[in-house]
């Protein structure tokens, strides 16, 4: 492979062959930017899907306490919002239950966001449910982190 000219940073570009993706290094004139190729017409699996988690985030003007919003991972594909609410309501008043769904498969993606009215309730739910079984799977509960500004 030829070396890149000075001032150019290598980036990764995808190409397809027989329906499989392979990655090659190409020179990029913008070292701080990531360049992704346009989605190919080979199949749905090679196209990038929009994130479904954005629908669960509160609008910027809504103020949720940092420690009142929880991230629950390791959920079964059979878990419903009702079963989440039933499992977590014993720790306090839930204001929001958002089970993130896969738009293509029409099933849960395996994680959810919960909001409580108070920090003590959220802390109790985190301590009480972390590492416990729900719908046959061990779930993990932690404080939800804000997304990085893009």
Give structural attributes.
150 residues; mainly beta; Alpha-Beta Plaits; 2 helices; 33% strand; globular
Shape: globular
**Poorly predicted spans:** 10-42, 50-55, 57-64
The CATH architecture name of the largest domain reads 2-Layer Sandwich
| Structure summary, number of beta strands | 8
Number of structural domains: 2
Helix content: 10-25%
Assess the beta-strand content as a share of residues.
Answer: 25-35%
Count of DSSP helices?
2
Strand and helix order: EEEHEEHEEE
Task: State the name of the first-level CATH class of the largest domain.
Answer: Alpha Beta
**Separation of the first and last Cα atoms:** 33 Å
Describe the structure.
By secondary structure, the chain is mainly beta. The protein folds into two domains: 9-46, no CATH class; 53-143, 2-Layer Sandwich (Alpha-Beta Plaits), CATH 3.30.70.330. Helix content is 13%, strand content 33%. The strands form three sheets. The protein has a four-stranded antiparallel sheet, covered by helices on one side. Strand 1 and strand 2 form a beta hairpin. The longest helix has 11 residues, at 119-129. The relative contact order is 0.16.
